Amino acid sequence: MDGVAMNNILNQITASHPLSLLIGDIDRSFVGYVYNLRYDEAYVQTNDSFKHAVDGLAHNSFLVAAGFDPTRFNEAPLIDQEVVLLRVLEPAALPQDADMVRTRIEHHQRRRAEERLPGNGNDGLDPMTRSELQWGGLRCRVLGTFFMQDDLLRLGSDVETFMSLPRMRAYKPRSDALARIVNHVNPEVRAKAAEEAKKAGFHNVPQPIDIGTVRYTSTNRLQRASGEYVHVEIQPADFLARRTAVLGMTRTGKSNTVKTTVSAVTLAAMKSGINVGQLIFDINGEYANANHQDDGSSIADVFGDRVVRYRALDTPGFEDLRTNFYSEPGQGLNLIQALFKQESSPFTGQDLDAFMSATLEEPDASEKGEHLRWERHVAVFQCILSRARYPIPSGFKVDVPRSKSLIDQMNAWQQQQGNPDVAVPTTDKLPPAQAAAWFEQIRAINLAVRENQATQRQATIGLSSSTAGNSWVDPLLEAMLNMLARETSRKQSFGGWRAIQKYLPYHSSRRVQDVTAEIVRHLDAGKIVILDLSAGPVEIRKVLSERIAKQIFERQMGTLNRGEMPQNIVLYVEEAHNLVGKKIDLDTTWPRIAKEGAKARIAFVYATQEPSSVHPNILANTENWFVTHLNNDDELKTLGKFYDFEDFLPSLKSAQDVGFARIKTLSAPFVIPTQINRFTPQAIKAHIEQIKVGPQDKAGI
Question: What does pTM read for this prediction?
Answer without folding.
Answer: 0.81
